[in-house]
Amino acid sequence: MAGLGHPALIAALLFAALALGLCLAGALRKRSDITEAGVRAVVASFAFVVVAVLSLLTALFARDFSLEYVANYTSESLPAVYTLTSLWGGMEGSLLFWTLLLTGFSTAALIRAPAQRAGLAAWAGVVLTGVAIFFLALLLGPADPFTTLASPPPDGSGLNPLLQSPGMVIHPPLLYTGFVGFSIPFAFAVAALASGRLDEAWFVSTRRWTLFAWSALSVGIVLGGAWAYTELGWGGYWAWDPVENASFLPWLTATAFLHSVVVQEKRRMLKVWNVSLILLTYVLAVFGTFLTRSGILSSIHTFTEGDTGKWFLPFLAAMLLGSFALVAWRLDSLRSENRLDSLVSRESAFLGNNLLFVAAAFTVLWGTIYPIVNEALTGVRVSVGPAFFNSVFVPIGLALVALTGIGPLISWRRMSKGSFWRVLRGPVSAGGLVAIGLGLAGIRSVGALLAFSLCAFTAVSLAGEFARGGRVYRTREGLGWPAALRRTLLRNRRRYGGYVVHVGILLIVIGFAGAAFRTERQQEIRPGDTMEVGAYTLAYEGSTRSETEEKQVNAARVEVLRDGQAVATLRPQRNFHFAQQQTQSEVAIRSTPVEDLYVVMTSLDADGTAVLRAFVNPLTWWIWMGAAVMAAGIAVLLSETKGSAVRVTAPQRRREPAVATR
Amino acid sequence: MDQTRPQTSPKRRAKFIVGAAVLVLALVGLVGWAMNRSGATSFYLDVSELQAQGPTAGTQDYRVGGNVVADSLHRDGLTTTFDISDGSSSVTIVTDETLPDAFWTAYDNDPGSVEIVAQGRYDGERFAATQVLAKCPSKFKAKV
C-alpha cells in the first residue's frame, strides 16, 4: 500500500496541472464547459491525494518502519488514536494533510459554485490549483513522506509524549482547517480582481467558508492554549511563541475582515480594504505554515530543520506581489460607492475595530520577525519577549472591548451627539460602578480595573441589544422572555450569533485580566512537609511508583487545605516514557470559577523529596467558559441559512438585495 | 441612495492624510515604547560574545546559549548551578527556576549533550538566569 503513495502524488500533481490549464482556458475564453472539465480534474487530483493519505495511514497503522516517516513518528506501543495524529505529527505528513484539505476544500467550493458565477469559479480554480501544485511539488521533492529506509529499525522513535494528549489530536487539524479554509475566500477574491467582477459576489458566495475557517482557527487556537496550560506545566496558556503568533496573525486579519465586509454589504464602502484583508489573511496563513517549517525561529513548535523552508519564500513573495499587483490594477473599480457621513456612525465604529485589529496584527508581526530582520540588517541577534507583546496588546485589546460595546449602540450613517450619549448612559454607568466598586475593594492593577470595567460596559450594551430585540417579539407576538430571546437569536443569527461570540470574548478577557493577580511558589519538600501558596496549604504525603507498558508513573499525593479544611487531593506526576527515553511532568489542576490551583512536580529524588511548583491562577476558568460561549455563538453563526444571510437591513432597504444584483 | 460616486474634495483628502498619519504615529509610538520596556527584548549571545559584551546594563536582558559542561551541575535546594561552554570559553549559570523536562531528558541520556538558552542578567562573572530553555534532543520531533 505504501508503494501507492508516490505514484498517487504524481497523478495528483498531473491532474492539478491539467485542472489549472483547463480553468485558465475556461476563464480566458469565458467557456463554462471548459471550466467544468477543469473542476472534474480538481476532483481527480483530490481523489489521488486521498489515495496517498490512505497509503500513508495504512503504513502508519501497520508500523511499516521501512518508511522513514513511520519510523520517526510511531512505535510499536503507540496507541491507535495517536497513530492517527502522527499523520500530521511530522513535517512531511503535515504538508500532505494540508494538501488533502486544500484539494478537498477546492473540490467542495468549485463543485458547488453556481453556473452564473462560472467566471469567478474559473479564476478561483486557477488560484487553488496553483497553490495545490506548489504543495504537491514539495511532497514530491524536499518533503517526501514516502522516503524509504535501506535498513528499517526494529522499532520506531514514537510520538513525542507532549503531543500524546487529547487536545493535540484536534488542535493541529483545526488550525490547518483554518489556514487552508482561507484558501477559498482568497481564491475568489483573486478571481474577482482577475475577472473584474468586483461586486459583493466574491465574498458573499464564500462567506460560509470564511466563517468556517475563522471558527476552526478560533477553536484551534483556544485548544492550543488549553493544551499548553494542562500539559506544559509553566502555569500559563499563551507565551507569544513565534508559532503561536503565526496562528494568531491570520486570525487577527480574518476577524477584521469578518467585521469590515458588513460595511461593504450595507454601505458599499471599504472595497480595497476588504479585498486586501483577505489577501493578507491568506498570505499570513501560508507564512505561518512556513514559519513552523523553516527552522529560522526557535520555538517548541518547530519541525526538525530541513530545506523545505526556502521553497516557501519565493512562493510567499509571488503570492504577496501578485495579489497586490492585482489590487493596484483594479484600484479604480474598487472605489467606494459611499463615504463616511459622520464619525459617530456604525461605519466608523467598524472602521475603528478594523484599524485596531490590523494594528494588533502589525505589532505581533513586528515582534515575531524583528529578530530575523534585526540579525539580517545589523548582525546582532535579539529576541523579543512576552513583555513587549503584553505591553502593546493590553491597550489595543481594551480599546477593542470598548468598541465591541459602542458598535451596537450607534446607528448607521450618522447619529446626533445627544442621542449617542443617551444610549451610552447605561453601559457607561455600569462600567463606572464596577471600576469604583473594585477600586474600593482594593484592586490596584490599572489594567485589570480597566478590563473589568470595560467588560461591564460592553456586557450591559450587549444585554441591551438582546433586551431590545426580545421586547419586539414580546409585544408583537406575546411571547415570554425566554421564547422572545430565542426568537431574537434565531431570526437574525448573523447579528445576535455575533453578539454571543462577543459575550464569550468578554468572559475570556475577564480570564486574561485574572492573570494580573497570579501567585506562584516553588519549594523543595519532603514527604510529610507542607507549603503555602495563596490561601492554600499543600501537604505532601509522598509519591508512589507504578509502571505501564509505555511509561513509569511517579505520582505525588498532595492534600490541599484551605482554612484548615481539606478541599482536594491533587496528584501531579513525573513520568518516564520508555520509547522516547524522556521525562515528562503531568500537571494537577483544581479548577474553580474563582481560581485554579495548579501544581507541578518539577523534580523527584529517590528518597521521595520533591520540588513542587504551585500557582494560583485567578479567573482562568472563565477563559474556557468564554471559549465555550464563543463556540455556541459560532454554531449559531454557522447555522445561518442562505435566506437569512441576504436579509436586507435598513440602509439598503430601497436597493436590491446585495446578492441578487446579478 | 446616491448613484454617483462621491468625489474626494482636497479638504477631505487632507483630513484623511492627517488622520492616517496620527494613527501611524500612535502605533509607532506604542511599539517603540513597548520595545524599550524592561525584559521586552534581549540580546542573544554565545559565551564568548557574552564575555566580550560585559555585564548587563539597562532594561535589556541577555540570552546566552551553549552546551552544558558535563559534571558541572550542582543542586542546592531550589538553586541549580552549572557551566555552559561554546567550545572556547565557559560561564557559570545560576538559577532558582525550574529546568525544563527536556533538559533532564537530555541530561540523563548524556550530561554533555544538553544545549540550553538561558535568559537573565550577567554580572561579569556569573549569569543569573530567570529562564532556561533546553534545545530538544534529536528524538524530539514537535509540531504545530
Q: How does this structure look, described?
A:
The complex is a heterodimer of chains A (662) and B (144). By secondary structure, chain A is an alpha+beta fold. Chain A has a domain at 517-618: Tick-borne Encephalitis virus Glycoprotein, domain 1 (Sandwich). Chain A has 21 helices and eleven strands. In chain A, strands 3, 4, 5, 6, 7 and 8 form a six-stranded antiparallel beta sheet that branches. Chain A has a four-stranded antiparallel beta sheet with strand order 2-11-10-9, with no helix packed on it. In chain A, helix 2 (32-61) runs antiparallel to helix 5 and helix 8 (183-195) crosses helix 12 (271-294). The longest helix of chain A has 33 residues, at 346-378. In chain A, 50% of the residues are buried. Chain B has a five-stranded mixed β-barrel. In chain B, 29% of the residues lie in helices and 33% in strands. Chain B has two domains: 9-38; 42-134, OB fold (Dihydrolipoamide Acetyltransferase, E2P) (Beta Barrel), CATH 2.40.50.140. Chain B has helices spanning 10-35, 47-53, 101-109; strands at residues 41-46, 61-68, 74-76, 79-85, 90-95, 115-122, 126-134. With 144 residues, chain B is α+β, with helices and mostly antiparallel strands. Chain B starts with 9 loop residues before the first helix and ends in a 10-residue tail after the last strand. The interface between A and B is large, with 66 and 44 residues.
